[in-house]
Amino acid sequence: MNRRLGGWRRALAVATAGLLAAATVTACASDEDTAAAPAASGSAAAAFPVTIAHKFGSTTIEKQPERVLTVGWNDQDPVLALGVVPVSTREWFTEYPTYPWVKSALGDQKLTTFSAELNFEAIIKQQPDLILAIYETINKETYEKLSQIAPTVIQSADYADEQTPWDVQTLTTGKALGKSSEAQALVAKVNAKIDEAKAANPQFAGKTLVVDFGPEKGQHWLIPAKDPRRALFDALGFAAQTESEDVSEERLDLLDRDVLFVNGATKKDMLASPAFSRLKVVTEDRTLYTSFSTPLGGALAYSGPNALLYALDILVPQLKAATDGDPATKVEDLSNQS
Asked: How far are the Cα atoms of 61, 100, 136 from residue 150, in angstroms, in the given order?
């Protein structure tokens, strides 16, 4: 499975579950591809031209795009949720097409990738008429190169690189695709489900939930509040620990709060550490585990609206079990789920 290094840990490399397990064949544009492109609906076509502001100025999209290509690490997820299959995407989690919400969106269609690195030649071959590069650190030079290929939408100046909230990303994507009303409906659906979970579980409010991201070889990475990788927990009402980033085994006390969510390692591997296994949050069954290879791990990484709906279905019952104060309520091990 492919796991990106770099941006997720900002200046440091993110812990990764493995190397590339498979190479995805890139499909070049063809007459058949062009014929299969969706026709613009009347209402969607009426939304154009549209101009989207971003950190390097603005991009104008003259007509409804028919060949959408995604460069951002997770940009394909809101695109698929809006009913559009990109002609090609950035390669990241090789399991991605197998995830339940992705399979449902794809139907009989295939999702192709160009590479894990930016490959301008491969992008040009796809003949895109729109490039989305929102969840990626795009510099001015790269933006200009992409813009010479097709109108390119990147993140706004309102957020740091790779910090655009999922709902803003979804709405921006919807605007670029001429599907603003559909995007608003998806955001409302996720928010309604979050509100429902909060109302049913008032004990979530104020409890400190620590996200230990990609623990590896005695090192742990704590995700701070407002980071997209813990956005769902923040939205559910949990507080974040004040400490963030790299923590060694000697400071595992920083993990010992109300709830612990381990993202990127199996329960079995984590319990192999005596220091970790002695934490009260572990012994009292207030710890959730998932690995990067599970659909849940993928849902939290891609964070499109349908991915978040899937994650809520899986997480909320386990978070309830971890916070209800009843020792008889067991938290399931999610780290080996398929």
From this structure: 9, 31, 17
7-178: which CATH architecture?
A: 3-Layer(aba) Sandwich (3.40)
pLDDT at 43: 64
Across-strand partners of 153? 132
For residue 27, give every residue at least 6 positions away whose Cβ sits within 8 Å of its Cβ, in sequence order, or none. Answer: 33, 87, 88, 110, 112
SS3 277: helix
The pLDDT of 16-40, averaged and rounded, is 36
Q: Where are the domains of the chain?
A: 7-178, 191-323
Q: What is the pLDDT of residue 219?
A: 87
One fold for 7-178 and 191-323 = yes
Cβ atoms < 10 Å from Cβ of 252:
19
Residues 6+ apart with CB under 8 A from 30: none
Which of these CATH numbers, 3.90.550.10, 3.40.50.1980, 3.40.50.1000, 3.40.605.10, describes 191-323? Answer: 3.40.50.1980
Whether residue 151 contacts residue 129, with contact meaning beta carbons closer than 8 Å, is answered with yes
Tens digits of per-residue pLDDT, 178-232? 999 999 999 999 999 999 999 999 999 989 999 999 998 888 999 998 888 899 9
Report residue 243: phi and psi, to 5°. -80, 150
Per-position DSSP letters for 94-134, written without gaps between them: TTGGGSHHHHHHHTT----B--SS--HHHHHHT--SEEEE-
pLDDT the model gives residue 11: 31
Q: Read off the DSSP letter of residue 19.
A: S
The string of pLDDT tens digits covering residues 120-170 is 999 999 999 999 999 999 999 999 999 999 999 999 999 999 999 999 999
Alpha carbon distances (Å) from 135 to 144, 259, 278, 303:
17, 28, 38, 11
The rounded radius of gyration (Å) of the Cα atoms in the chain is 20
Query: How does DSSP assign 179-240, residue by residue?
Result: -HHHHHHHHHHHHHHHHHHHHH-GGGTT-BEEEEES-BTTEEEEPPTT-GGGHHHHHTT-B-
